[in-house]
Design brief:
alpha/beta; about 15% strand; globular
């Protein structure tokens, strides 16, 4: 187990790999090469080869827990985390779980993320308030990314609503960014999830929360503009983790899929770096 905090791991990975790229591990067996179709360990084997091909190019890996749980592959996720920690111990692992529940249940979800899976960080929904994230903050060396301005269309249903009883009538996502930057960030563990499809809103979040790491999905298959995303989110104070999943994982359906994934990761990393 790493003795570094999540934020220190980010700094170390950034220095070593010179990368803003986070590779999302969202395994869909139907998209695997045919040689994997009949293997009971196909999810682990596929993801491990992606990790082996890209770990020197990334800032973080982000397994999405639903893709494992849907196939009863939680044991393969545990093995995958240990594989990452063996081949790339300096690369932080963000468990994409988006949990959000009352304190007692959140305490159990925190055990799941940080003790069972040994993740270095987790994504959470903040909409049940501070007591729903407080149990995670007790793991003082871990990171927590709060959903702030998501890239899906339905995000507009709530996140853009203005809060009439708060000074300046901020939008909901702006208020979440403010809480994460100040009142809720009791131990310097918080970051925010902001979708790449809204670069102007990334810039707004960055203005409110200049020092927080931003986890930004949506570059690649979801159509986010890499250059606009980097320019809106990167500052000297706060890390930017730009996630790409499908565009890298499924760059090829052939037997050399890992080589294709590596080529896609290099292209994406270099594109992001050139945008600085």
């Amino acid at each position: 187990m790493s003795t570094l905090t999540f934020m220190q791991m980010l700094e170390k990975a950034q220095t070593k790999n010179q990368s803003m790229l986070c590779v999302g591990l969202d395994p869909e067996p139907s998209k695997f090469p045919k040689s994997f179709q009949n293997s009971s360990d196909s999810i682990f084997e596929f993801c491990a080869r992606i990790v082996d091909a890209t770990h020197d190019l990334v800032l973080a890996f982000k397994p999405q827990i639903a893709y494992f749980a849907a196939h009863k592959a939680e044991d393969q996720l545990e093995r995958l985390v240990q594989h990452i920690k063996t081949v790339a111990p300096h690369i932080p692992i963000i468990m994409d779980a988006k949990r959000g529940d009352i304190g007692a249940t959140s305490a159990q979800y925190a055990v799941e993320a940080f003790e069972r899976y040994q993740a270095d960080a987790v994504t959470l929904s903040p909409f049940m308030g501070f007591d729903s994230i407080e149990p995670y903050l007790k793991y003082e060396n871990k990171g927590i990314f709060l959903l702030c301005r998501t890239s899906n269309k339905g995000g507009d249903d709530f996140q853009n609503l203005r809060l009439a009883d708060k000074p300046g009538n901020p939008k909901l996502y702006e208020y979440i960014a403010e809480l994460a930057q100040h009142k809720w960030n009791t131990n310097g563990q918080l970051g925010l999830v902001v979708g790449a499809t809204y670069p102007q809103e990334i810039a707004r979040v960055r203005a409110i929360a200049p020092s927080l790491p931003l986890l930004i999905p949506g570059v690649g298959a979801q159509g986010g503009d890499a250059r606009a995303t980097v320019q809106a989110g990167k500052t000297a104070l706060g890390h930017v983790l730009i996630n790409s999943s499908r565009a890298i994982l499924y760059a090829s359906s052939g037997s050399e899929f890992d080589a294709s994934a590596r080529a896609a990761a290099i292209q994406t990393r270099d594109l992001l770096n050139a945008a600085c």
